[in-house]
Specification:
Strand 2 and strand 3 form a beta hairpin. The longest helix is centred in the N-terminal third of the chain and has 32 residues, at about 5-35. The chain is mainly alpha-helical. The N and C termini lie far apart (about 70 Å). Helices cover about 60% and strands about 5% of the residues. It has a three-stranded mixed beta sheet with strand order 1-3-2, sandwiched between helices. Helix 1 (about 5-35) packs across helix 3 (about 60-70), helix 7 packs across helix 8 and helix 18 (about 430-450) packs across helix 21. The protein has 21 helices and three strands. It has a domain at about 5-135. The structure holds zinc ion. Zinc ion binds near residues 274, 309 and 312.
Length: about 525
C-alpha cells in the first residue's frame, strides 16, 4: 500500500463516520415525523442537535483539511468521474463551506428561527403579517451575515442558491423565470377561461376509504419500480417526504384526505420518484457522502435540490398525470374503488388529474400554475436580500404579484404571504428547486425520448423500464458526483433549457382544453 493509498483509506474512514452520523440523524428524523409521541419533541431536539454538532466538528476537523491537500495529486491524476476523485472534490466543497460558518452564527440563527416560528404561528392565527415582520427582519439580518461569512456580502442570494444548487447562479435563474413569465401567465389565463374545472375535478373527489387509498398509492409506487419489499418502507406523516439511510433502505411517506384521492396518490408517486433515485445510487457510494441525499440539509445538499425534484416531479406529473399511465392504472384504481370509477374512461381521469386554475396556495397548485407561485417567492426573496424591498412591505408586494401573475388577490395574509413555513427557517434560495426540477425533468424526458422514440408506449401496459433505465444510467448511477449543470450537460447536452418544458405544457394544455 502506498502512502497515498493509506491517506485515501484514512480519508474514507473519517468520511464514513460523518456519513453514519448523518444517516443516524435521518433515522431519528424519520421516527420523529412518523412515530414519535408529541411529548418526545424536546428530548429529540436535543439528541439531534448533539449529533449534528458532532458531525459538524468531524467535518471541520483540520485533519480533514490536511488530508484534502495530501490527496490533491491523487485527485488530479484520476479521471474526473472516478469515485475517489469525485469524493475528494465534493467533500472539499463541503469542507470549505462548513469551515467558513462560525458556530456562533449557526446558534443565533437557530434561536432566531425558533422565535420566528412562534411569531409566524401567531400571525397566521391573527391573519396579520405585521406580527411576523419584526422576527423575519431579524432572520434576514442574520442571513446577510451568513452570506458575508460565505464570501457573498454583495450578492447574498447567490450564497443561498449555491447551498442548494452548487453551480447555478441568480442570473441563470432570472433568465429561466423570464422565459416562464413570457408564457405561463397567458396560458394559465386561457385555460382558466376555457372550461368549468369543477366538473372535471369532481372525479377524484368524494368519499375514498383511507386504507384503500394507501394501498392504491403503494400499488402506484411499486408499479413505477420503487422496491417496497426488500429496500423500502412507507408510513404516514403530516407532510409527505422521502428519506434515505442507505441505497438499500429508503423510506417514503404520504398523507390521506378522505374526500380527495389525488392528495395521497400523487404524493405517493412523487415520493416514490425521489425514492427510485435514492435506491438507484450504486451501493459503492455508501458512506462517501455521495449517495443522493434529500435528508442531509446540514451539508447543504451535496447534489442538488433541483435535480432531486426533477426525479419526483417527473414521475408525479409527466408519468402519473399522463393518459398512458391511466390507460394502465384505471383498472387497478377501479378494483379498489368500483363505485367511484364505474363507467369512467382513462381520458376522464386524465382530464380530472390535470385541472388547472389559478389558486392561492402553492402546495395545492396544479402543474400549470405551480411555478408562478415559485416565481413570486424567488423575486421577493431577491428584492429583499438586495435591499430593494423592505420586509415590512412584503405582504403588499406579495398580493400585487399574485394579482399580476395569477389574476387573484389573497383575502388575507394567512392564505398569502404567511402560507409557507420556509421563511421561518431560511430566507432566500428555498424555492427555486421546484421550478428547476420541472425544467430539468422535461429536458431529461425529451432527451430520453430522442434516444427511445417509443418511450411512452410501454406505460399503457405498466412498463416504465425504458424511462427508469435511462435515468439509472444518466442520473442515479452518478450519485452526487456532479454539480447540477454538469450533470444536465452530460445527460442532455445543455444546462437550463426551458424549451422542452414550455413545449410540454403548451402541448398538453392546448390539447386538454381545446385551445387553439
Ligand atoms: Zn419532492
Amino acid at each position: 500500500m502506498t502512502n497515498e493509498d493509506k491517506k485515501m483509506e484514512q480519508f474514507r474512514q473519517k468520511i464514513a463516520e460523518i456519513d453514519d452520523l448523518h444517516a443516524t440523524i435521518s433515522v431519528m428524523n424519520w421516527d420523529m415525523q412518523t412515530q414519535m409521541p408529541k411529548g418526545g419533541a424536546e428530548a429529540r431536539g436535543d439528541q439531534m442537535s448533539t449529533l449534528r454538532r458532532i458531525a459538524h466538528e468531524k467535518l471541520v476537523d483540520p485533519e480533514i483539511g490536511s488530508l484534502l491537500s495530501d490527496l490533491e495529486a491523487r485527485e488530479q491524476a484520476l479521471p474526473y468521474e472516478h469515485d475517489d476523485a469525485s469524493m475528494i472534490r465534493v467533500i472539499r466543497r463541503l469542507y470549505d463551506r462548513a469551515t467558513r460558518m462560525s458556530g456562533d452564527l449557526v446558534f443565533r440563527m437557530s434561536q432566531a428561527a425558533g422565535r420566528a416560528n412562534t411569531a409566524w404561528l401567531e400571525a397566521r392565527e391573527a391573519q396579520d403579517f405585521a406580527l411576523f415582520a419584526p422576527r423575519l427582519e431579524d432572520l434576514v439580518d442574520l442571513r446577510r451575515e451568513q452570506a458575508a461569512e460565505l464570501g457573498h456580502a454583495d450578492d447574498p442570494m447567490n450564497a443561498f442558491i449555491a447551498m442548494k444548487e452548487s453551480d447555478i447562479t441568480v442570473d441563470a435563474l432570472e433568465e429561466m423565470f423570464a422565459d416562464l413569465r413570457a408564457v405561463l401567465p397567458g396560458l394559465a389565463a386561457k385555460v382558466a377561461d376555457a372550461d368549468d374545472p369543477d366538473r372535471r375535478a369532481s372525479l377524484l373527489q368524494g368519499d375514498f376509504d383511507p386504507d384503500k387509498q394507501l394501498d392504491l398509492g403503494m400499488a402506484a409506487a411499486r408499479a413505477i419500480g420503487f422496491d417496497l419489499d426488500h429496500r423500502g418502507r412507507y408510513a404516514l406523516s403530516v407532510h409527505p417526504f422521502s428519506i434515505t439511510f442507505s441505497p438499500d433502505d429508503v423510506r417514503i411517506t404520504t398523507r390521506i384526505h378522505r374526500d380527495y384521492l389525488g392528495s395521497c396518490l400523487f404524493a405517493c408517486i412523487h415520493e416514490a420518484g425521489h425514492g427510485l433515485y435514492m435506491q438507484g445510487v450504486p451501493s459503492d457510494l455508501r458512506q462517501t457522502l455521495l449517495d443522493s441525499s434529500t435528508s442531509r440539509p446540514e451539508l447543504g445538499r451535496p447534489v442538488s435540490f433541483g435535480v432531486h425534484e426533477s426525479q419526483s416531479r417527473l414521475w408525479e406529473n409527466t408519468v402519473g398525470r399522463s393518459l398512458e399511465f391511466w390507460q394502465f392504472f384505471l383498472p387497478i384504481a377501479r378494483a379498489f374503488f368500483p363505485a367511484q370509477f364505474a363507467g369512467v374512461t382513462p381520458e376522464d381521469v386524465y382530464r380530472a388529474a390535470n385541472v388547472a386554475r389559478p389558486s392561492l396556495i402553492r402546495v395545492e397548485a396544479d402543474e400549470l400554475t405551480y411555478n408562478l407561485h415559485v416565481m413570486i417567492r424567488f423575486e421577493l426573496e431577491k428584492e429583499v436580500l438586495e435591499g430593494g424591498l423592505q420586509v415590512r412591505d412584503l405582504a403588499e408586494a406579495w398580493n400585487e404579484k399574485m394579482q399580476e401573475y395569477l389574476g387573484i388577490t389573497p383575502p388575507h395574509d394567512t392564505v398569502g404571504v404567511l402560507q409557507d413555513m420556509h421563511w421561518t427557517r431560511d430566507f432566500g434560495g428555498g424555492f427555486q428547486g421546484y421550478t428547476l426540477g420541472d425544467v430539468f425533468s422535461a429536458s431529461l424526458v425529451a432527451r430520453a425520448t430522442e434516444e427511445n422514440p417509443g418511450l411512452r408506449d410501454g406505460w399503457k401496459d405498466g412498463d416504465f423500464s425504458v424511462l427508469r433505465n435511462w435515468m439509472q444510467r444518466n442520473i442515479y448511477d452518478h450519485g452526487s458526483k456532479f454539480e447540477p449543470l454538469e450533470l444536465m450537460h452530460r445527460a442532455t447536452g445543455s444546462g437550463i433549457d426551458t424549451g422542452p418544458y414550455l413545449r410540454y405544457l403548451e402541448d398538453k394544455f392546448t390539447r386538454l382544453y381545446d385551445l387553439s
